[in-house]
Amino acid sequence: MLLRGPQDRDAPTMTRRPILFAMLALLALLVAACTSERLGANQCEFDADCASGFVCASHVCRAQCRADSDCTAPARCMLADNPASRACVPPPAASTGCVRDSDCRAGEACLGNVCRPACQADYDCQVINPLSHCESGACVLVCSVGIANCDGLMPNGCEVNVRTSPAHCGGCGRACPAGEVCSNGACASTCGAGLTNCAGACVDVTADVQHCGRCGAACPMVPNAVATCATGRCGFTCAPGFGDCDGDP
Question: Which of 78, 148, 181, 245 could bond to 89 as cystine, CB 3.0-4.6 Å?
Fold first, then answer.
């Protein structure tokens, strides 16, 4: 009878170990390939992928801004991927530019002044403007009460406060006569009680983020947050999923 020593009994196990290690190594490579997507130069998924002073807008790092005057023409100050931020965004290329859906080919819609495949879900529109949703294959803006999309552009839509804008007082295109101000959506000779005349716009400087404490004192933008103004002092509210854990704005 042939007797087997301990080394013989362990032989099958020892043979399988290199195979097992090779399979684990291959699995690790596959996982890394699926989860370590590399971004190209100046590309981004989140604001954290961009350098200081830049935010992620349509997956490209662009300069932060508060108004069109902060940008170099023909770029305009529009909502970034994070609705708490704005970025200087250049106009679409003339070859793909559009104003309405009829400017595009069949199966496409005019989204952000660019012909794109018609939307299938709200997310398709919200990557262009978080205030929009998909309706019958087209992106539709839903502005808050008192806010309007007066220039008709999707990327910076809902850009005018018709309660204070002397050029769009009470509605888009309703300009106040020379010498009058816009107070609570109506043209008037003076601002109402508790409001301050800031270049024809009657604002509450205790609560307006563009005129916080005084005319022209806009509250700074904070990454992953929405600027606030309370009792004339600037602050911010973190976007959902974010927190100010270090207490440093």
Answer: 78
Q: Convert the pLDDT of each residue in 197-249 to its tens digit.
A: 999 999 999 999 889 999 999 998 877 777 899 999 999 888 777 788 877 66
- Residue 194 vs residues 75, 204, 227: alpha-carbon distances, Å: 36, 7, 22
Task: Please report the DSSP string for the chain in residue order.
Answer: -----HHHHTHHHHHHHHHHHHHHHHHHHHHHHHH-PPP-TTB-SSGGGS-TTEEEETTEEEEB-SSGGGS-TT-EEEE-SSTT-EEEEPPPPTTTB-SSGGGS-TTEEEETTEEEEPPSSHHHHHTT-TTEEEETTEEEE-PPTTEE-TT--STT-S-EETTT-TTSSSSTT-PPPTT-EEETTEEESSPPTT-EEETTEEE-TTT-TTSSSSTT-PPPP-TTEEEEEETTEEEEEEPTT---TTS--
> How high is the pLDDT of residue 207?
93
What phi, psi does 88 have (nearest 5°)? -80, 110
pTM, whole model, 2 decimals? Answer: 0.50
Instruction: Find, among 77, 81, 80, the residue nearest to 66 by Cα.
Output: 77
pLDDT digits (tens, 9 = 90+) for 58-76: 778 899 998 888 888 778 8
Cβ atoms of 188 and 181 closer than 8 Å: yes
Mean pLDDT for 102-115 is 74
- In whole angstroms, what is the distance from residue 157 CA to residue 150 CA? 8
Place of tokens 């130069």: 41
For 28, other C-beta atoms within 10 Å of its C-beta total: 10
- The arithmetic mean of pLDDT across residues 118-126, rounded, is 76
* Residue 212 half-sphere exposure toward CB, CA atoms < 13 A: 16
